[in-house]
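Example 3.2
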Amino acid sequence: MKSNEGMPILPVEAYTSQAWFDREQERIFSRTWAFAGLVGDVSEPGQYVAVQAGLNNIFIVMGQDGQLRAFHNICRHRGTQLLRAVGNTKKVITCPYHDWTYSLEGCLLSVPDRRNQFPDLDMASLGLKKASVASWRGMLWVHPDDNAGPVEAWFGGVEPHLGPHRVDELVEYEKGRTEYTIAANWKIVVENYIDSYHLAHLHSGTLSMYDHKRIKSGFEGPHFHFWEPLSREYAADVERNAPTPLVVPAEQAGAWVPMLFPGIGLAENEDSWSVFHLTPLAPDRTRVVVRTKLADVSLLKFASQSIRSYDFWSGRVRGKYDSDGGDDPMASGDFMQEDIYACEQQQRSLRSPYFEHGPSAFKGEAGVRRHQELVMEWLGEEQ
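Structure, written as tokens:
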């Protein structure tokens, strides 16, 4: 595809239509592995997490035997959601509607007034419906199908392109957990993530520590992989310049920023590891939750590293524009706020009768074009 041919792979309706959104929920998000949290989120019997996976709400719970199991979050009586997002059920799972009670292994244990209300009830046939659960690279994953096959088969092709981080050995930075509701279609958010053309421009003042001219990226199956080295100035003494203690050896420093299909981004760099979990909420609304892990070292070492790196960072990170107002995202010096602004402005433009697709950057937006093709393929649409 030539860059001057534009990017008409997906029509405007793909970003605005409820019908498109519903098909994506059914054919993409309900048929792929979904990120459900970090391994440490469910670490003792009774602990659980619930996640929306397309049309399905699924929870992971640890049984009394220490085994992780996944079930559809649906009571077998009237379909009420059994568990909320996160918590500890102790020894049983009880539906809040009519108190039907299940074991942590998914078996139906008791039904109130069973003898009078359900004299012929077959309890054994009404256990919770199973889903698949797996752990991979320090993360928990669920799939609506209880025979989904190994998660490694889904991610196997892209794994060699990921960072060398030992995720299980890092610790979560609780203050680094952030949640955003972005007024844009989920594909616009993904396309922004994998668009390498914008990095040197939108983020000229916030991501200058990386060398955007030496990016290496591509696809393995449906998964996008991306790597770029440090800028020469930052790399000259990265052990001193990094804002927090390194999590990989200095000679391996750089940024690995894959987007695992359909919407799980990883930001793996020299001093941190983050997961960027995207959930479509509506045709024009997307929730993004970011969780970050850092080196497992003392607070003193974090403080010392901050002091060591102060001279390098002082005055270096800045917004793209200057502003007297305190709420201008383009003056914030925060690359996430810059991205959100760009995504939301793009979504607004889609409503204009004057909008039309412009030319596509031959290299920098190749990933965007491929992602759009993948969406078409998963929906079974003709290109």
